[in-house]
Amino acid sequence: MTLSMLYGEPRVITVGAQVLGEALDRQAVPRREVGWRPPLPGTAPALARVLADPRRESANATAVERMLSARPMLTGVRPAREALGLAAGEFFHAGPPITWERASGPMRGALVGAMLFEGLAATPEEAEDRLASGAGITLDSCHHHRTVGPMAGLVSPSMWMLEVADAEHGGTAYCSLNEGLGKVLRYGAYGPEVIDRLRWMGEVLGPVLAAALERCGPLDLRTLIAQALQMGDELHNRNRAATSLLVREIAPAIVEAAPDHAAEVLRFINGNDHFFLNAGMAAAKVSADAARGVPGSSLVVAMARNGTDFGIQVSGLGDRWFTGPAGVPDGLYLGGYGPDDANPDIGDSTITETTGLGGFAMAAAPAIVRFVGGEVSDAVAATTSMYEITLAEHPAYQIPGLGFRGTPVGIDVALVARTGLLPVVNTGIAGRIAGTGQVGAGLVSPPAEAFTAALDALCDG
Q1: Angle at 294 between CA 292 and CA 297, to 5 degrees
Q2: pLDDT tens digits for 296-307?
Q3: What is the pTM of this model?
Q4: Strands (E), 210-296
């Protein structure tokens, strides 16, 4: 064997450090590169125990199959007080639970705006005083109530909600109506134009959409999302195709149900390429919820941010949150804004990545790089890397540029720890000062400690 090594052609396998591989390449030595990364620091003992859990393989197969087989249908539009039982002074927000004292600028701004919208305060100062005192005010996470909300995710009783039902497993999820971009409540703005728009949405947009859906019947969101992926959307920061497909489905019913308001409603939707985002989020929420509650499963069923904390929930660990500090996105900024103006990551919209869309589907949306930065090759690399930390490929959500391969879906806490790869998230960027609104868009990495904490908890379970 020693002589063959000395006189034969070397067969080289390189692992890890690129410097060795590059030196061999310069010498034209054939080699095979093995992609390997060390596990996240300090996770080896917990990782060994979780991987050895005899329940894990079958539990994950059950959980991810439920997620993949969900059939989200847009069934209605209703006020939050009716759909969710919200009473005056009750507000739901994005991300893990948080108090006023720990809330970031955009979260505080959205809460102030919701107070003004509901008539619980006459001025921003009065709203802040009431929120700080907590008198008659209740805050809770949207996720605790089958609900998701983009950015600050504020839901108050008078807001109208999209209702999405899972025709396969019977669950229901909700999301508010999308306001558009710029100075909007979800980014923490609360000026008069924001409140006026919310009132119009409550008085006109919501009732018109509700009447239209009653005429045209439930809309199959799974099929619509699949079509939009073929047309260049990734369904988080790019929803142009999905919004167009939704308008095509519902426009005739809008005209028939509300001829007096049809033009203004269709004009509003047409001017808002992100209008479908909220329907897609509710579809993702109901799909992820179908995978909850499987003992022994290490499948992530929620990722969410409140502007202070980034949290995850895991199928086999009930409703417990595992959190770490939310990071500041790295991306492109609007106008004169820059990184110093950015708030840490915020919003429930990472439910799209949780179910194989958004950052996990960027290879389907080359145009997304013009919005979040980078090159087309970066978008492809982001998607392909996510196959390493997921349990399946989505049978309906396919990427033309990858030979119609299904999007990577089903984030596994154990695979995140074993590979050291964190989920790819693309997101809007909110201004850190309340009232600013959107300042940009980009990419962000979740905190590793959220996943390692969940891994430790799986050991105890």
Answers
A1: 100
A2: 999 999 999 999
A3: 0.92
A4: 219-220
